[in-house]
Design goal:
alpha/beta, 4-stranded mixed β-sheet, globular
Length: 198
């Protein structure tokens, strides 16, 4: 995007389109960095989404800053939003505690990044792959464990959301509906390839 207003306009477009399709207790989870999360937060507030929390994803194996002109960027943010200010959201307390030795999960997650290289399957070449454990945790704590629930990812990229959903289906023995979408046909092909072998 050439300007911040253009980025905000794009974010507002997809966030408006999503809301009427969500169940009342549904959640939106958005991962990003300081390059885009401030604008996402502004748009969310403008549209009267409620920011449940902002999670700090701390990345121990983040790429080094070889030039040493600034600190190593080792944190990304994750917004957990709900579609209505005054409605409730679903929070799986038991799932949350499983990720933190029986205690309620904190809002900083120490998880290594996905370092799979560009060799082999096409999905490995995606520049912004997220680790399956990160996405799976976010879905697990925000998703009711009922057959027929839906997970939608507008920006499927390398297909990590699909892998996470398949893992959760096996874990809970339920059928989770899902829609993965991306405007890049190369990514779509890579996602199909990845999910076929999971």
């Amino acid at each position: 995007w050439d300007t911040i207003p253009n980025y905000e306009e794009w974010a507002e477009e997809w966030m408006k389109a999503l809301r009427p399709k969500m169940v009342e207790i549904g959640s939106v989870v958005v991962c990003g960095s300081y390059h885009n999360l401030p604008e996402i937060g502004v748009v969310a507030k403008r549209l009267e989404y409620y920011i449940v929390t902002m999670i700090a994803w701390c990345i121990p194996n983040s790429m080094p800053n070889l030039a040493c002109t600034e600190m190593v960027h080792a944190v990304q943010g994750i917004y957990w939003l709900r579609p209505q200010m005054k409605k409730r959201h679903f929070y799986d307390k038991a799932a949350s505690k499983r990720y933190n030795d029986g205690k309620n999960l904190r809002d900083y997650w120490l998880i290594n990044n996905d370092t799979t290289s560009g060799r082999g399957m096409a999905w490995r070449k995606h520049k912004s792959k997220k680790p399956v454990v990160l996405v799976q945790r976010a879905i697990d704590i925000t998703l009711p464990k009922e057959s027929g629930v839906q997970v939608v990812d507008f920006f499927a990229g390398s297909g990590t959301t699909g892998v996470a959903v398949q893992n959760l289906e096996k874990m809970y023995g339920i059928q989770i509906g899902g829609v993965l979408s991306d405007r890049d046909e190369g990514y779509i092909a890579a996602v199909n390839e990845r999910l076929a072998v999971v």
